[in-house]
Amino acid sequence: MAIELRQQLKLTQQLIMTPQLQMAIKLLQLSRLELVDTIRQELEENPTLEEVQETPEKNKENEPEEVSAASEEAREVTIEEKINDEIDWSNYIDEYNSPGKVNFESENREAPQYEAFVSSKESLSDHLLWQLLMLSPTDIEKQVGSLIIGNLNKDGYLQLSVEELCEQSGISIEMVEDVLETMQSFDPVGVCARDLRECLLLQANLLNLEDSLVTDIISDHLKNLENKNYKLICKALKVKLKDVIAAVNVIKALEPKPGRQFNEETPHYIIPDIYVYKSEGEFVIVLNDDGMPKLRVNPFYKRAITRKNEVSTNAKDYIREKMRSAAWLIRSIHQRQKTIYKVMESILKFQQDFFEKGVVHLKPMVLRDVAEDIGMHESTISRVTTNKYVHTPQGIYELKYFFNSSIKRVHGEDIASASVQAKIKKLIEGENPKKPYSDSKMAELLKTDNINIARRTVAKYREMMGILSSSKRKQF
């Protein structure tokens, strides 16, 4: 068989990830805050991209249409300045005749800009270090105290044992224990404890409850307290049930996480990307453009590349590349907003009952339903619905929330899993606190509502919503 070279024409189709497509996909999956950060970064890096500043109409009438280059030239600085006749010469002479320096403040002095100051919240470490220094500690005590403070978690618990502290500091156990005992009396009460039992005992001792039923329960029966097995506590301590309940109410008032009030985590507020509201009997979709920079290509650079000899060839190539990048960004942002609108429009069509009546009427839906409705791929719908939020008459929800698995009913249409969770939550809210519903009982009650699910499914949904079991929900 001879080997030879041949030329052959062949038609093929393949997907090429052009820069425009890459940018569009990248922007599509960004959240609102990430998109604003990306735009701000592009504004800093791309000189041809600029933000359109909106000015009031009344100011536009007074603005000149164009400022000539000649009028912007800086005036030459000269020394032919006249002396200000309003100078207070008496203060000037008195200042230089006085033995010390005298400062004269005018009434028109510039006041400090208080809005520029940012308040900082005191941390747990700073609060404890301040209390330690108030005791005028020795160098060794200061070293041990700083080591203890550095090994506290955000809840105020000590994460190292006394032996480990001794190994790291090279100081005797007696000294470490003395410093730790001193710091356990600091504010907030219960700080520097090594576990929950010690934390609660420190707070109980501060309330003068030593050798009481409260400390006995904390010391020996925390597990029974967690499971609300009060009868076993009564039997072990040989006390009445009402006394145990009174002690438990005291323990409930204690703080299990002393460092909680010094938590430095700042809340992240959700800004919806879309608003859906009802107007004249119909739902209206409005994209949220508040705070979103409005972009355009700087016209100065457009004119620059049309000039023949004033700009070099390399500069023109650079400007063209940046203008092309700016145009792609603007086009990708518009495409992103258009896609989000189409997806929300399709969701509104499928989940009309939810927007009208609430979560209980949420229908089962998957990404394929919306993808087929608007003619897009499922991966595109997944990117659009990730980290995007909508403000509805029922509250603020992530777009992913509307996609639920279906639960079979005995009769009638399938129901969404989120609707089943809402029904379970409603059953628990209406139960008798002294006799809460078990998972099996809730499964039976749901079956009367034409929802046939197993007990373990009820338990799974209950745990997903962060609801305790019936034994731990029981109140005496």
From TrEMBL:
Entry keyword set: DNA-binding, DNA-directed RNA polymerase, Nucleotidyltransferase, Sigma factor, Transcription, Transcription regulation, Transferase
A single Gene Ontology CC term: DNA-directed RNA polymerase complex
Residues covered by the RNA polymerase sigma factor 54 core-binding domain: 114-301
Matching Pfam families: Sigma54_AID, Sigma54_CBD, Sigma54_DBD
Stretch list, region Disordered: 46-74
PROSITE patterns membership: SIGMA54_1 (PS00717), SIGMA54_2 (PS00718), SIGMA54_3 (PS50044)
Annotated signal sequence range: none
GO biological process: DNA-templated transcription initiation
InterPro entries: RNA_pol_sigma_54, RNA_pol_sigma_54_core-bd, RNA_pol_sigma_54_DNA-bd, RpoN_core-bd_sf
Residue ranges occupied by any RNA polymerase sigma factor 54 DNA-binding domain in the UniProt entry: 317-475
Recorded GO MF terms: DNA binding; DNA-binding transcription activator activity; nucleotidyltransferase activity; sigma factor activity
Family of this protein: Belongs to the sigma-54 factor family.
NCBIfam families for this protein: PRK12469.1, rpoN_sigma
Name the UniProt record assigns to this protein: RNA polymerase sigma-54 factor
Gene: rpoN_2
